[in-house]
Amino acid sequence: MAENRSTPPVTMATPTSAELLQAQAQLWCHAFGYLKSMALQSAIRLGIPTAIHRRGGAASMAELHDALPVVPPSKRPCLSRLMKLLVAMGVFREDKAGTSVFSLTPVSRLLVEEEEEVIGGGQRTCLSPFAVMATSPFHFAASQRLPEWLEMNDDAAAAAAAETPFMAAHGEGLYGYLGRDSEFGEVFGGAMGADSRFVAGIVVRECGEAVFAGVTSLVDVGGGDGTTAKAIAKAFPHVRCSGRCWSFPKWWRAWWLMARLSFLWVI
Description:
Elements: H1 17-31, H2 34-46, H3 48-54, E1 58-60, H4 61-67, H5 76-89, E2 92-95, E3 101-104, H6 106-109, H7 128-134, H8 137-144, H9 146-150, H10 156-161, H11 165-170, H12 174-180, H13 182-212, E4 217-221, H14 227-235, E5 240-244, H15 251-261, E6 263-266
Parallel strand pairs: 4-5
Antiparallel strand pairs: 1-3, 2-3, 4-6
Helix pairs in contact: 2-5, 7-13, 12-13, 13-14, 13-15
């Protein structure tokens, strides 16, 4: 019979004042971490990455003010602080030689609405729709229910009513909510489409020759709007592609399968 062994106590050294202050700073960073997501969403909605791109990839604050007329003069100091936070996050780069100039990083290039040449072949690489979906109130509300959801009883009624934090926040699961809320459905569909276009382009470029050598035809199961099949057909004209969405009960289920569970049946 196995013995019950308790974990021996660990003696913790008394932290110094410097260590306590560092721990406090780290705690604040975690506690206010949601502001990073909101800063990212603000940059996308204001069109800052695209504005910098149209300026040749770099812009001063004055040039951003001219390019973003939606920001009133009274809030321009806040825009400057927003840019500082985004620089610290690695979304933008700041050149402080003289007047501060902000430029794009690999992260912010993925947020440029008209960027089509990052991975070559004219493949669109903008992931702004995905970032907007991930930082939307729909998911944020679900994340706020996580502590409450973890404390819920395991009885059948409670489990059926809230299998996930998303269900606890919105009254039904992701699939059901997509079918009921047209706004969320549009946001989710745009996000899945952007993600699929991005991934399909990289797969074709990096894995195409090895994966599709000798293939004459294929079926993309759960192909949504045919993004993946179109990318393959364009890169390999000899492959006969067919994107199928077989009798899924809702259009959003096809989007979900296309972006996350899509696989190819090679004939």
